[in-house]
Amino acid sequence: xKISHNIxxxxxxxxxxxxxxxxxxxxxSKEDILCFIEKKNDYTPFYILGGGSNVLFTSDFQGTILLMxxxxxxxxxxxxxxxxxxxxxxxxxxxxxxxxxxxxxxxIENLAxxxxxxxxxxxxxxxxxxxxxxxxxxSVEGYSIGTGEKRxxxxxxxxxxxxxSIFKNELKGQFxxxxxxxxxxxxxxxxxxxxxxxxxxxKSLEPLSLTAVSKMVVSLRNDKLPDIRVIGSAxxxxxxxxxxxxxxxxxxxxxxxxxxxxxxxxxxxLAAGQLIEKAGWKGRREGxxxxxxxxxxxxxxxxxxxxxxxxxxxxxxxxxxxLKFGIRLEPEVNIIG
Length: 337
Ligand code: FAD
Ligand code: EPU
Description:
Elements: E1 2-8, E2 20-27, H1 30-38, E3 46-49, E4 55-57, E5 61-68, E6 73-78, E7 82-88, H2 93-102, E8 127-128, E9 131-132, E10 137-144, E11 150-154, E12 175-185, H3 195-203, H4 210-224, E13 232-236, E14 242-243, H5 245-254, E15 260-262, E16 268-270, H6 272-278, E17 285-286, E18 289-291, E19 298-301, H7 307-325, E20 334-336
Parallel strand pairs: 2-5, 3-5, 4-20
Antiparallel strand pairs: 1-2, 6-7, 7-12, 8-9, 10-11, 10-12, 13-19, 14-16, 15-16, 17-18, 18-19
The structure holds flavin-adenine dinucleotide (FAD) and uridine-diphosphate-2(N-acetylglucosaminyl) butyric acid.
């Protein structure tokens, strides 16, 4: 297990806040996970980090960061219709999507270019453009930090929901995901339920293909989301709020243009970005913290923002949206400290 001490975390998370950790452990194998678990009392408090694209460090981390860096893509089943892969937690998510797109394996193409690692993909059940990763996951494998026991969670055991799973809730900080098993299809089938993607596909002169769809997704993303090589961010800062049918109806009486997506359980999902924009925050900047000008759900660090400045800023947004719409936005990003 490789270890470093007193390390800046700036290049290990996409908000690019200049903060430090006491110790950094590089987890490159199952043996490293077990070695960490055996010595965990020497490394407490600790935090598991993949690509750091969904975290906000509010200050220096007075403990150990586990950097998940294990590699490997293993084919477990290969039939005429389907392929099953077991992928190590430290593989890049975007590279795995590209690998599948190039080989004509269907099911995750709309999730192209989401930053981060494969091991984090089940944690918040990543989703975009009408797809969620839960629909391709067979199981999630890993180790219980308390006992060192290996556990395999079936898709159902993972308790997947919108931006949620057992790993983000009940098992947060208690379980290290070592790999994820996916089932992808070899049958040509596209998911064009997201209106913007469907419109692009309809206008395109190219025949539909996995490569074409993933390119369209990347283009949609580039139009709305910041380039993390240039601007610090963790993507959508808040979750889209889910409200009752009645609450949505009352809100639409006052704001007829409010976007509302009906969910299977009868509840309604609102667009947090629209609420933030309507509250007047889109493009607003205080010091080096701001609301991204193309997508109000995304908070950005223009350079030297600190974690506590971002916390103060997002709390002002929450308070203002409560005042104007009676809706309390919840962070989607994992706030550390
Ligand atoms: P990290 O930020 O490192 O970790 C996220 C959480 O998972 C933490 O709580 C961490 O402790 C836990 N974790 C990580 N690895 C493990 C492990 N092996 N075992 C146990 N726990 C672990 N998300 C979407 O869903 N859809 C999008 O469209 C999207 N777009 C984005 C665009 C931008 C520009 C950015 C910056 C982010 C975006 N995100 C999106 C958010 C983010 O990319 C995803 O949540 C991603 O899955 C996070 O991966 P990561 O490896 O960076 O996780
Ligand atoms: N909207 C506005 N103003 C804004 C932003 C959005 O009015 O500034 C409106 C849009 O016009 C649209 C609606 O809100 O009617 C939804 O917008 P969009 O389709 O861009 O998606 P989103 O709900 O804002 C979600 C995810 C993104 C994901 C996109 C695409 C969450 C929290 N965010 O954003 O995920 O990429 O859909 O499917 O669910 C992330 O999690 O980090 C992330 C980027």
